[in-house]
Amino acid sequence: MPARRKEENLKGWWPLLIAAKAHANVAPHLRETACGAITVVRFGPDPARLGREAGVSDDDQAVTPAWAARDAAAEAFARVAAPSGVGAVDPGRAPSPLADAGGLGRFRRGDLIHRLLQILPDLPGDERANAAGVLLARETDLSDPQRREMAQAALAVLEDPRFAEVFGPGSRAEVAIAGTAAGLPEGLAISGRIDRLVVLAERVLVVDFKTNRPSPATIEAADPAYLRQMALYAAVLGEVFPGRTVEAALVWTDGPKLMPVQENLMAQSLAELRRNG
């Protein structure tokens, strides 16, 4: 550290020490004493030197409290789960993370597009395309066509006026959420991360981005796991924002298109979840 910087730091805390020593409640208890070869100013009595035999004996140790021998009570919630995994009944249907889509694993493609949709909305519109190129250029194993396809998928969503509210005032990206709600199965709490949350005076909009190709033609044709996920988000947000209408929607980058998730579909998803435990 440069000498000038050290001097500035010293001047920052040294006056505080001087002022503390001069305080009426401190000054009477200060005295000079030898500490090896130097003289120091000490507050309070000298520390007592204890030999090895002065250590705590077994007889002096505190008695172990009774609660330490009892089993801990069951947690209020038997399980905490990620919304995307709640209700999964057929793990064999899940595609492999190594599944290939044009030389790029589908999950990695989805992660990269999600990252673009998280970062780019905070930039001015005329800077987004260049920023997308810079971010994707860091993925050195991708081809230029792959980078262009992902950048175009993200920019198409951001530039579509139908999605203006999703990225407008009151919106936030990657919002952590944890909790439970009256409509969830007993003993279940969720912990997850919302892709985009819009909080307005009278309503709340929760949005999840999906990069599946091809995207379904209707919301009814969407993967039931996606509908459960949005139903869980909406239920917990209803507890967080009482008195406000909570709406949910899926944004498909293939299209792109926005699909509201109707309230009856979410209610049906929660009812099925409760029936199946």
SSE layout and pairings?
Elements: H1 3-21, E1 30-35, E2 38-43, E3 79-81, E4 100-101, E5 104-105, H2 106-119, H3 128-137, H4 144-159, E6 171-179, E7 188-199, E8 203-210, H5 224-240, E9 245-252, E10 257-261, H6 263-275
Parallel strand pairs: 3-7, 8-9
Antiparallel strand pairs: 1-2, 4-5, 6-7, 7-8, 9-10
Helix pairs in contact: 2-4, 3-4, 5-6
Task: For the structure shown, list the relevant keywords.
10 strands; 6-stranded mixed β-sheet; Lambda Exonuclease, Chain A; alpha+beta; two-stranded antiparallel sheet; 6 helices; 32% helix; 277 residues; 22% strand
How is the CATH topology of the domain at 99-275 named?
Answer: Lambda Exonuclease, Chain A
Query: Spans with pLDDT under 50 lasting ≥5 residues?
Result: 89-103
Overall pLDDT metric: 84
Class inferred from helices and paired strands:
alpha+beta
Give the biggest sheet.
6 strands, mixed
Figure out the total of helices: 6
What spatial form do the alpha-carbon principal axes imply?
elongated
The first-level CATH class of the domain at 99-275 is given as Alpha Beta
The end-to-end span amounts to 61 Å
**Helix content range:** 25-40%
Any idea what the radius of gyration is? 30 Å
What is the H/E string?
Answer: HEEEEEHHHEEEHEEH
Relative strand content = 15-25%
CATH architecture of the domain at 99-275: Alpha-Beta Complex
**How many beta-strand runs?**
10
